[in-house]
Design goal:
- By secondary structure, the protein is mainly beta.
- It has a single domain (2-201), classed as Porin (Beta Barrel), CATH 2.40.160.20.
- Helix content is 7%, strand content 66%.
- It contains one helix and 15 strands.
- It has one helix spanning 2-16, and strands at 28-38, 43-45, 48-52, 55-67, 70-77, 80-86, 89-97, 100-106, 113-131, 140-142, 145-159, 162-171, 174-179, 182-188, 192-201.
- The strands form two sheets. Strands 1-4-5-8-9-11-12-15 form an eight-stranded antiparallel β-barrel.
- It is elongated.
């Protein structure tokens, strides 16, 4: 009798647990979140060591599943604003948009947690560059960048149509910097992007 009761209780708990957010061909996901871009160590240039501070901004993702467990995702965001440092001193600022297209695979299972991995291409558009501090009044320009993007994370199902997502990306961003009309070389930004989001399935 005790064994039957225990089995019944286990079955009941399993039936009330959050279902997996299964992904099938034709499904669409919309994610609304918040992302933190943490640039790498920067680069040595003709003007000195150049790096950028981190930045926070709202993000949005849209994903279409071309096959079961296999989706194509587009990442977009409100512009990220970064301080630019020259030899450890704030010397300017810039904004950028990082649209990223990725192919992603989801490891579906019977639990409410669905991990995934992906890879794709990033295009970074820099704008509103401005010199400050030692570069006050000096023109600063950063060229746009194309690069590889890697992605991994997990969806934690809330119900069959929504989930909480935590994910991280590594993006290869290299820009050519021009200060006062003089090319000072390439700057490797190569950020890690940490994101949390609410994901809805349609």
């Amino acid at each position: 009798m005790k064994k039957i009761t225990a089995l019944t209780l286990a079955a009941l708990m399993a039936s009330t647990a959050a279902p997996a957010l299964a992904q099938e061909q034709g499904d669409m996901l919309l994610g609304l979140g918040l992302g933190w871009v943490e640039p790498g160590d920067g680069s040595n240039t003709a003007a000195g060591q150049v790096d950028a501070d981190g930045a926070l901004s709202p993000t949005v993702t849209f994903e279409y599943f071309v096959a079961d467990n296999l989706g194509i995702e587009l990442l977009a965001a409100w512009p990220f604003k970064h301080d630019i440092n020259l030899n450890g001193t704030n010397a300017g600022e810039t904004k950028h948009l990082p649209p990223t297209l990725s192919l992603q695979y989801y490891f579906t299972n019977s639990s409410s947690i669905t991990p995934f991995v992906g890879a794709g291409i990033n295009y970074t558009y820099f704008f509103d560059e401005e010199g400050q501090g030692p570069l006050n009044g000096v023109s600063v320009q950063l060229d746009d960048s194309w690069g590889l993007a890697l992605h991994a994370g997990a969806d934690f199902a809330i119900n069959e149509k929504s989930a909480f997502r935590a994910d991280v990306r590594y993006i290869d961003i290299e820009t050519e910097a021009t200060v006062g009309g003089v090319n000072i070389g390439n700057v490797d930004i190569d950020p890690w992007v940490f994101n949390v989001a609410y994901v809805m399935k349609f």
